[in-house]
Amino acid sequence: MIKSEAKERIEKLKNLVDKYRYQYHVLNKLEISEEALDFLKHELKKLEDEFPNLVTADSPTQRVAGKPLKEFKKVRHQTKMMSLEDVFSEEEFSEWVDRLDRLIKSKPNHFYPHTKSFGVGVYAEPKFDGLALSIVYEGGVLKYAATRGDGQVGEDVTQNVRTIESVPLKIRAKGRVEVRGEAIITKKNFEAINKRQKNKGASLYANTRNLAAGSLRQLDPKITASRRLDFFAYDLSGAEFKNHSEEHKALRDLGFKTGGGLEGICKKPEEVFLRYKKIAERREKLPYNIDGIVVSIDSNDLFKKLGVVGKAPRGTIAFKFAPKETTTKVEDIIVQVGRTGALTPVAILKPVEIGGVVVSRATLHNEDEIKRLGVKIGDSVIVGRAGDVIPDIRKVLKELRTSREREFHMPKHCPVCKKPIEKKEGEVQAKCVNKFCPAMHREGLYHFVSRKAFNIDGLGPKILNAFLDHGLIQDASDIFELKEGDIAPLERFGEKSAENLVEAIKSSRKITLARFLYALGILHVGEETAIDLAEHFGSLEKLEHMSKENLESIPNIGEVMAESVYGWFRDERNKNFLKKLLKYIDIENPKKKKPGKLAGKTFVFTGEMESMSRDEAKAKVRELSGDPSETVSKNTDYVVVGENPGSKYARAQKLGVKIIDEKEFLKMIK
Ligand code: IVH
């Protein structure tokens, strides 16, 4: 090919590759296959190799062309890169609005013609959790890119930013144009990179932000390229715009990603709250991390007039999500006795808000966990909520110790009944083995009325405590004897509420055999086992008289469970309790049914499914005579994997158990 032909072909190829890059990395839809795109890039590369002086800086082949640097050059930002003030609640957000309105009112001439902060509305968009970048184009070509640094002077990371496919190397614009935005890494890439780090025995990245920052500050652009960063733009200068929203539209027209489709104008604070909630709900499912929303006064004129306070513009606020982790102090460690006698150490925390709720206790599980964490009474700790629900201590901040912290030791005696406690060889949990321990009894009662057992509306631990403390009940069967007149005099009760409770107790008398067995609180008999037992034996009478061997012969019941069930029905105290209890209740035995199409198949679920909850999925399996289980073993037939699967997924892979996704599962139960 002669040079003039090559030049023409190169120009065309560059434009075509850029078009498909934009489709793929910005719009997320590619009209051609990835292989075809690779082929176009390959042809371009070959031509450029043949005619090296036809290579230009905006060529897609130049995304990873740089050699490793010795150090980053410093770049002075033309205008300062600011930061944002944070608010964490609707109240704090409203205070920001009030503050602006007071300011506007106090200087009407200065702010003319604006009379209210929400006049033209505000623009709300996600707050991406990454690293701020300034990218400068001159004559439409990417000239340089810099990190925020101290706001005035940043580091030149041009080579690295060129590797980000969602950043265009050329744009349709004249003169000097500066685009600011956030470089991020997707959750998926983060996981994959950490997995690689782990396999290499290298240290892991703490979060997506650290990884994004670490990847941009690489002297070798090849490493940055391998991290596949992404970029969301939020600010454009170099042209005049009336509103922030128009600026965003212009950014999109230039080929940048903005807002991730979550952005928009809000005309009232209530609309901001609604958008905040909607975005918060979608947060987990988004492919990247966000940590709040950014709300800006939409009118650029008013925004400018509002000016700056400290390092932050007055006209923009970061409305952050409640933190999922926070720090607090361990004020004490107490020991709780559970229904089965298990002793659980619990950290009493200085109350803090995590993810929108106040938390004051966190389970420490057992002595081993305390040792693993190295936690002492008085320590400063990082707490989070496991699975976003259960508070847990993640880390002890040993650097903050004062030497006044106290070591915790597991007691040798039950804190409630004072009898010696037992810890068997090889077991992690210490236990109170006193059958008559009042603490175990109390916990057993809580369990008896709980949602998956008798499910008595309005009867929880607090009221049960009051019943016990007033001597109204001795054991669970006494609950069914309670009359309105017994309950009404108690604190927080009146005649009406007492009547309602008696009614709720009455209507709970009819109960399925499975729920009944679960309510008894037999050691090792959880919800699943109770269902297995009920379905297998069909009636309480049959189960009561079963031999140990017979119990062991049913699927999912091992020796320990069989022993426990057998022993329970032969204990004199339990026998008396049962006799008393059966006077009040009416057990519904399971109907004999024809075996369904999943008969004999065991299923384990891990991760979230889209179309149903895990409980619903298990019920479905049971309905079709299959066997849902919590643990993956060689005998598991299927492991159904949803979003964000847990360790069961890895275990299934290891054991070679068949793994199916939600779609396949739905097909099986159709
Ligand atoms: S506008 C005045 N919009 O949050 C700074 N910032 O806490 C301009 N950030 O340094 C901020 N997503 O790195 C804006 N949609 C967004 C953002 C965003 C993330 C970052 C930005 C800034 C930091 C301030």
UniProtKB/TrEMBL annotation:
Reactions performed catalytically: NAD(+) + (deoxyribonucleotide)n-3'-hydroxyl + 5'-phospho-(deoxyribonucleotide)m = (deoxyribonucleotide)n+m + AMP + beta-nicotinamide D-nucleotide
Pfam families: BRCT, DNA_ligase_aden, DNA_ligase_ZBD, HHH_2, HHH_5, OB_DNA_ligase
One CC-aspect GO term: cytosol
Signal peptide residue numbers: none
Active site: K127 (n6-amp-lysine intermediate)
InterPro entries hit by this protein: BRCT_dom (IPR001357), BRCT_dom_sf (IPR036420), DisA/LigA_HHH (IPR041663), DNA_ligase (IPR001679), DNA_ligase_AS (IPR018239), DNA_ligase_CS (IPR033136), DNAligase_adenylation (IPR013839), DNAligase_N (IPR013840)
Keyword Magnesium (UniProt): yes
Enzyme category, top tier: ligase
Keywords, sorted A to Z: Coiled coil, DNA damage, DNA repair, DNA replication, Ligase, Magnesium, Manganese, Metal-binding, NAD, Zinc
SUPFAM superfamilies in alphabetical order: BRCT domain, DNA ligase/mRNA capping enzyme, catalytic domain, Nucleic acid-binding proteins, RuvA domain 2-like
Keyword Cell division: no
Binding site for Zn(2+): C414, C417, C432, C437
GO molecular function terms listed in the Swiss-Prot or TrEMBL record: DNA binding; DNA ligase (NAD+) activity; metal ion binding
List of residues binding NAD(+): S83, L84, E125, R148, E182, K320
Cofactor: Mg(2+); Mn(2+)
NCBIfam families hit by this protein: dnlj, PRK07956.1
Stored HAMAP family: DNA_ligase_A (MF_01588)
The protein's name: DNA ligase
